[in-house]
Amino acid sequence: MTLCIRAVTLDLDDTVWPFAPIGARIEQRLHAWLLEHSPATAQMFPIQAMRVLRERMHAEHPHLVHDLSELRRMTLRHALVESGADPALTDPAFEVFYEIRNQVECYPDSLDALARIAARVPLAALSNGNADVVRCGLGDHFRFQLGAREHGAAKPEPSIFLAACERLGCAPETVLHVGDHIHMDVVGAMEAGLRGGWLNRDAATWPAELPRPDLEFTTLTALADWLDAHTPEPAAA
């Protein structure tokens, strides 16, 4: 199969870094902050109860699936109000969350691979999450970041993929989107007309009923290797 790839869009959570450790730190640090600043809220909503509340907010507000930051604010505000605390604590509590959200620990292969990919083709971050690549210290690798909140729709909606292609100035069939999620990343990208690359770090099995991805990698290093072998040497600046 011959692919003409002129740019890459890249998912972030569980692609560039694992999310689970971040999520665990968020829960612990937020609970500790609430214990100090709003003990009644921490008592009414310990970690598991806060998790249930957050899931309830997601279920009750499906129109905000693209805006995880607003859903997080709503969860915090609801917990504060229900526990009789000052809702003005919502913003400082959110800042605690957001600081930890952007303290990412990349997979061992990511940093070197990001530098290699960005040196070979234009690279954009395309995420449903609310991490900020600049605040994470990775902004230099990306031409831009397009988030679901900014765009107004989340992957796998075709419009977010096509908006990224437009900003890159590339036809969709020349853009490779790479991510870990079978439906939101790979199938969504291919249905929008992009090339789909599956980052399969866990040796999962691709569902037989779905069309195969255009490419499959086990690490971002493998993606960088493929681009080195299959795209032209970039012109000198």
From TrEMBL:
It holds the Pfam family Hydrolase. The keyword Transmembrane does not apply. Gene3D superfamilies: 1.20.120.1600, HAD superfamily/HAD-like (3.40.50.1000). InterPro entries: HAD-like_sf, HAD-SF_hydro_IA, HAD_sf, S-2-haloacid_dehalogenase. GO terms for molecular function: hydrolase activity. Keywords: Hydrolase. NCBIfam families: HAD-SF-IA-v1, HAD-SF-IA-v3. This is HAD family hydrolase. The keyword Hydrolase applies.
